[in-house]
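[Automated response] Your request has been received and processed.

Submitted sequence:
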Amino acid sequence: MSSMILSLQDILGLGSLLQGLWILSPVILHRAISDATGNCLSPGNNIRYLFLLKYPECAFKTWATKYGSLFSIWMGT
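Generated structure:
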């Protein structure tokens, strides 16, 4: 039974692994997802959720001003 209990070091190691996968996930998924002509998704970060607070349209307006009138967002689930 005592072998089922995780130590603090194991929990921190697992947390670090999950955080690393979360950070690298856009790099892997953007290359894996493409359309019929082979175009991959544009690069982006995975902290975009932090910018989409109560009024996400404000963030979209700011992004449209910065990047132009046409941009795509891949949110994933």
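Summary generated for your ticket: Helices lie at 8-32, 48-51, 56-67. The mean pLDDT is 74.
If you did not submit this request, please reply to this message.
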